[in-house]
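Quarterly update, task 2.4: adenosine-5'-triphosphate-bound model.
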Amino acid sequence: MNELAVELRHIVKKFPGVVANKDVSLKARRGEVHALVGENGAGKSTVMKVLYGMQRPDAGEILVDGQQVRFRTPAEAIAAGIGMVHQHFMLADNFTVLENVILGSEPTKHGRIDTAAARARILEMAAAYGLDIDPDAMVENLGVGERQRVEILKVLYRGAKILIFDEPTAVLVPQEVDELFAALQGLRAEGLSVIFISHKLDEVLRVADNVTVLRHGQTVAEVAADSVTAQDLAELMVGAELPTAPPRSTVPHERVVLSLQGITVGGQGTRDLLHDVSFEIRAGEVVGIAGVEGNGQHELIDAIIGLAPCQGTIVYNGTDISRFSVARRRDSGMGLIPEDRQREALLMGSALWENRMLGHQRSAPVARHGVLQLKAVKADAAVIMREYDVRAPGPETPAHALSGGNQQKFIVGREMSRQPSLLLASHPTRGVDVGAQAAIWEELRKARDAGMAILLISADLEELMAMSDVIKVMLRGRISGTFDPQRTTLEQLGVAMTVASA
Ligand SMILES: Nc1ncnc2c1ncn2[C@@H]1O[C@H](COP(=O)(O)OP(=O)(O)OP(=O)(O)O)[C@@H](O)[C@H]1O
Ligand SMILES: [Mg+2]
């Protein structure tokens, strides 16, 4: 038996105007967790799509179990034992776990779906790999970590021996990350191979045996995880050292930019989605919000920007805006980096310059005296691309052709370009590489020092600790605790996020 489960040799993949993979080689062994790292746009997702049969390579070879293969579709890759666990879950909400797992490959007996056989197999797999889940639970009632386990079971159910994870931890809270990593160890122990893409280099070193590093579409190194540090990996990725941030030398102003007084957003059931939330953000202050996703963060942003009807009072720069429309709030200088970039912040099929206008249709440089300024828009889109290092051929490139991290950088650049007096930022660096994260933090700090107020919602506790002047924890729609990042540990935050305070 071949020691290598899969080998990619000199893969080349070109798109119009872009060489996504110039020369990518990678070897994943049996019983190995193999990490794939590299800057935004380095070509990680592309080469995995090539392996999964979603993209055809222009050159190069793929070997599975030592045999050369050529996949024209994902179905062919699946038949060869390759599985992809998607980050944007593709589960049917109103079906059970079991129904979702077997969907499309139902076992039959006398022409009927053999549920008993399916259940037995799912329970067996769940036990073997440490993927704790109730097969009869409805998917709509599951948290993000559990949904991910369903996706993994789905892939295993189809006989995958090589599992590809493209940024699986970006959507998870620390405890869920631990659970996922335990499951990955289970897969490894059973002799399966895992290929794992992540920008969180500490995690990579924790979970992986070996790491392949891409730079500008080329494999530049393969290293054993226990022989390098996170800083080493970062340097291999970017070919330079990362800047370290100096401690804050300014203090927030006295002037209050945003004041929330008793904000409540009702839910369909008896419990409010957001209950009696009150706090202030001053000019030059960063208020961080920690919490497990789904504890009211989304409703908080929606209430402030005007998308969710709420009770209570919102005072913004001295004016009660509680009854203002979304457009009026936007026009008065609120910037918004929403949680789901593909659904809420971009038109994926449209050019970047068209995306430059989203949410900014009525303000300069997009419009002057009510007239659209197309030339200025295109020029400004190009400026954002340059300043935020958005790697794409130009403003005419459609959003869908950008790598995930480059889409995010463009959105951050767009919102910052108008110099908002208040920035509502949900996961502003989700999916961006360590170098770009440092650059975005730097931009946010500069704007903060110049007086911008920031509401920072993040699943990345290190980001909250590094950026916030004060951290508030949300739990079941309420603020359950307020912390000083200088005097708080990650563990204390983690506890506050999951346990209601007395
Ligand atoms: N469908 C496409 N059409 C045109 N260009 C594309 C397409 N898909 C990817 N690209 C380009 O190929 C390059 C590599 O993109 P890829 O998505 O593989 O990067 P990545 O390493 O996964 O980055 P990230 O960390 O941001 O997810 C980028 O320059 C991207 O813009
Ligand atoms: Mg990617």
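Highlight for this quarter: The mean pLDDT is 91.
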